[in-house]
Amino acid sequence: MANQLSHLDAQGSVTMVDVGEKPITKRRAIAEAYVRLSKETMSLLQQKALPKGDALVCARIGAIMAAKQTCHLIPLCHNINLTFLDVRFEVDSEQSIIRIESEAQALATTGVEMEAIVAAQMAATIIYDMCKAVQKDIVITDIKLLAKSGGRSGQYTAPGFNPC
């Protein structure tokens, strides 16, 4: 079984995958996460009246910074020069939910799924941090890959997701 797993060598030891011989292709990945707030906290967030300031601006910047550090956070993850990283927010006032969507792109020999997922997770974590002074029971949920393209494994789209 060791020879079937990409991060194990023939002796079963953990190793970094050699992607040096793989062709450089355009890689793209989209991930999402959700943050559930109380009505009161959502109102403060939308009014930019949280004690720590504008949560969404901080979350966007922090998520981009985190995505660029993915190889330092995840063991055996390759360092990738991102050509594009964006974080978008859909604020649902009625449900008090923020949907976070992150998109990573690179011209690389390996995928950018981890960078997109790290960006979505970090944006959610920063929103939590920005709101925790007024609410402790914030829920972060449903972090997942929505789509990826490029590379040998081809395209993946999560059921129900329609990428633009």
Structural summary, described in words:
The protein is an alpha+beta fold and about 160 residues long. It has helices at about 40-45, 55-65, 70-75, 115-130; strands at about 25-35, 80-90, 95-110, 140-150, 155. The protein has a single domain, classed as Alpha-Beta Plaits, CATH 3.30.70. It is built from 4 helices and 5 strands; from the N terminus they run E-H-H-H-E-E-H-E-E. A 5-stranded antiparallel β-sheet has the order 2-3-1-4-5, with helices on one face. Strand 4 (about 140-150) and strand 5 form a beta hairpin.
CATH topology: Alpha-Beta Plaits
At the first level of CATH, the class is Alpha Beta
Protein structure class:
alpha+beta
The number of domains: 1
Rounded to an integer in angstroms, the radius of gyration calculated over CA atoms is 18 Å
Write the layout of secondary structure elements.
Layout (H helix, E strand, L loop, with lengths): L24 E12 L2 H8 L8 H13 L2 H4 L8 E11 L4 E12 L4 H19 L7 E11 L6 E2 L7
Antiparallel strand pairs: 1-3, 1-4, 2-3, 4-5
Helix pairs in contact: 2-4
What attributes does this structure have?
single chain, 164 residues, alpha+beta, Alpha-Beta Plaits, five-stranded antiparallel sheet
Brief overview, please?
This protein has 164 residues and is an alpha+beta fold. The chain has helices at residues 39-46, 55-67, 70-73, 113-131, and strands spanning 25-36, 82-92, 97-108, 139-149, 156-157. The protein has a 5-stranded antiparallel sheet with strand order 2-3-1-4-5, covered by helices on one side.
